[in-house]
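Researcher: Re-running this chain for the archive, since the previous output was lost when a drive failed. Same request as before.
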Amino acid sequence: VNIPWIRMHYAYPTGLTPKVIVAIQETPNILPYLDLPLQHSHPQILRAMNRPWQGQVNDNIVEKIKAAMPNAVLRTTFIVGFPGETEEHHTHLVKFVKRHEFDHVGVFTFSPEEGTPAYTLPNQLPKAVMDARREEIMQVQQPISEKQNQKSVGQVVDVLIEQENPQTGQLIGRSSRFSPEVDGLVYLQGKARLGSIVPAMITDADIYDLYGNLDLSQSSN
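Model: Regenerated structure tokens:
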């Protein structure tokens, strides 16, 4: 397929078999970026979410991916405040996030949707508790995300140019590390055509974004 970047989203954990991982490795235009909707780490909460098998394999799945693809970018999402979630369950999730150092993490508070099984579950948590737990996970993840982004500093990476700031002329795009709308951006100095993929030298990074200059020593696409 003549598409430079193919990115996998919502990669259900059980679908990431060894054959699928090998296929990702052997297909040049499939990015080593995996969005894993893990939702939680504690077996009891996952069972309540109707994912009874997942609590036994979460750690194993992440470790297998990292062993097979050391440079893979891993994104996941979690739900905090699911009915019945205790402080022990939440602490389990905090430790899970610290242990695996995901590149990108999204955290949502439980929202009861009428007509779903979870809507009538007992032990619904107060909004203040859910918000505090979400904030704690985000505070844990932020230095991890910055650490992962800092690995790009001093590297030449390909950037898809998507915008140009009309006031400053600064280019705005994404590297293969960043998925549209949910991850960060790359801010560049230089000139390039919108829609092109160009090499850029990354000179700085923060929690969410990368910064750099077009690398004129290499040819652009």
